[in-house]
Amino acid sequence: MQLDFQTREITVKLVYYGPALSGKTTNLQAIHHLASPEARGRLMTLETRDDRTLFFDLLPLTFKQGSLNVRLKLFTVPGQVMHAATRRLVLQGADGVAFIADSQKAETRSNAVAFADLRKNLADNNLDLSTMPLVIQFNKRDLPDVRTDAELDQMALLGKEPVFKAIATRGVGVAETFLGLFDLIWAKLEREHGFAAKFGLDGVAMRAEIAKQLGVGAIRGSTPPEAWR
Predict the structure, then answer these.
(1) Is 215 helix (H, G, I), strand (E, B) or coil?
(2) HSE (CB half, 13 Å, CA atoms) of 55?
(3) Buried b vs exposed e over 131-165: b needs ≥16 C-beta within 10 Å?
(4) Distance (Å, rounded) from C-alpha 192 to C-alpha 27?
(5) pTM for the full model?
(6) How many CB atoms lie within 10 A of CB 221?
(7) What CA–CA distance (Å, rounded) separates 131 from 182?
(8) Helix runs in 92-201, H state only
(9) Regarding the domain delimited by 2-228, which CATH topology (the fold level of the hierarchy) does it fall under?
(10) Angle, to 10 degrees, between the axis of helix 174-193 and the axis of helix 203-213?
(11) Residue 56 forms beta bridges with which residues?
(12) Would you write out the chain's pLDDT as a tens digit for each of its 229 residues?
């Protein structure tokens, strides 16, 4: 999190992480499509000849709340093994992570390798996975031979991270994942910095405004943490 008193702006960094071709860039493209023109900035991509994201996508969203502007910067990392240094660099200063997993059973090992890589790169940046706001999205639910809903529900019960199901190419589950991560990030920032008292930032109102700007309204089953109230 960065706080610029001169511009009266808080910048929060969200990173979409996961194996190659799991749908990280597609998530950002879907959010960019959902966001109102007033809220969204330019979606910047840098791609290789085989259309895989090489470095990162950056999608800034800006919302006015209280006496400050809140700027959300969304990044993706390249999933290919050879770009480990870039992933580590993009994770610097991250306030929260959305891990985008591939639902196909054949990609189970790739998901596990990418998650282990996330853990290592966070540690290399002096960030702790156990305290980092983190959500997990299982994408590509429309493909054959995927993990069943029951398996994912059981996984969600066993872990502490919220688990979302998505078909990012259709925009399904994209906003839920994004708002779920925002919930965790803002609850942590409020506990650590007390933005509500210092700057009049109302987390519940901000979340409602973000949902409105994404054109999704209230999302069933996704509510702000008690720490916001």
Answers:
(1) coil
(2) 5
(3) ebbbbbbbbbbeeeebbeeeebeeebeeeebbbbb
(4) 29
(5) 0.89
(6) 6
(7) 15
(8) 108-124, 149-158, 174-193, 195-199
(9) Rossmann fold (3.40.50)
(10) 160
(11) none
(12) 888 888 888 899 999 999 989 999 899 999 989 988 888 888 877 665 554 554 456 788 888 776 788 889 999 887 666 667 778 888 999 999 999 999 999 999 999 999 999 999 999 999 999 999 999 999 999 999 999 999 999 989 998 999 999 999 999 999 999 999 999 999 999 999 998 888 888 888 888 888 888 887 655 444 444 443 3
Tokens 């210092």 correspond to 198
What's the rounded Cα separation, in Å, for the pair 42 and 151? 37
Please give the structure tokens belonging to residue 21.
């071709």
Could you give the CA distance from residue 8 to residue 26 in angstroms, rounded to a whole number?
31
DSSP per residue, 117-148: HHHHHHHHTT--TTTS-EEEEEE-TTSSSB--
Rg (CA), the chain: 17
- Do strands 9-17 and 96-102 pair parallel, antiparallel, or not at all (unpaired)? parallel
